[in-house]
Automatic annotation (TrEMBL):
This is D-aminoacyl-tRNA deacylase. Its EC number is 3.1.1.96, 3.1.1.-. The keyword Cytoplasm applies. It comes from the Bacteria.
Length: 150
C-alpha cells in the first residue's frame, strides 16, 4: 500500500462536473492498494496518516497532527501509485489490487481513519474518473509505503 499525503489549506474532488467532496485545512491522501496488502498494512498506514505531525505549532515547527488542528481528511483511491516503471516507458499496473480487493481495502483504510480520528473522512468514488483540486500548504508532501515500514 502506498500513500501520498499532502498538507492542504483546501482540497476537493469533482466527478462528472459536480463537487463530490471537499475539505478545508487538513490532509489530502492519495491511496494505492497493492495486490498483496494485508489487514496489518491497513492498520499501519491508517495509524501513520492519522498521527502524522506535519502541521505547524506556535513556533512554526511541524509538530502537530490532524487532531491537534481539528483538520479534515480527503482520501482518494489511486491505483496508479502501484505502477512499476522498471521496463520501457509504459507503466505496468500488474501489482495493483484487483478491483474488489482494492475497493474493500480502500474502504477499510477510510473506516480505520474515521475510528482513529473520531471524524468523518471525505472520499472520492472508487474507480471513478475524478478531478482533484488542492492547495498544497508549504508545500508539504509525505510518502508512505507499507513495503518500507522500517
Amino acid at each position: 500500500m502506498k500513500a501520498v499525503i499532502q498538507r492542504v489549506t483546501q482540497a476537493s474532488v469533482t466527478i462528472d462536473g459536480q463537487v463530490h467532496s471537499s475539505i478545508g485545512p487538513g490532509s489530502l491522501v492519495l491511496l494505492g492498494i497493492h495486490k498483496d496488502d494485508t489487514p496489518e498494512d491497513i492498520t499501519w498506514i491508517a495509524r501513520k496518516i492519522a498521527n502524522l505531525r506535519i502541521f505547524e505549532d506556535a513556533e512554526e515547527r511541524m509538530n502537530q497532527s490532524l487532531a491537534d488542528i481539528d483538520g479534515e481528511l480527503l482520501v482518494i483511491s489511486q491505483f496508479t501509485l502501484i505502477a512499476s516503471n522498471k521496463k520501457g516507458n509504459r507503466p505496468s499496473f500488474n501489482d495493483a489490487a484487483p478491483p474488489a480487493k482494492g475497493k474493500a481495502d480502500y474502504e477499510a483504510v477510510c473506516q480505520e481513519l474515521e475510528r482513529l480520528t473520531g471524524k468523518p473522512v471525505k472520499t472520492g468514488v472508487f474507480a471513478a474518473d475524478m478531478k482533484v483540486d488542492l492547495r498544497n500548504d508549504g508545500p508539504v508532501t509525505i510518502l508512505f509505503d507499507t513495503r518500507n515500514k522500517e
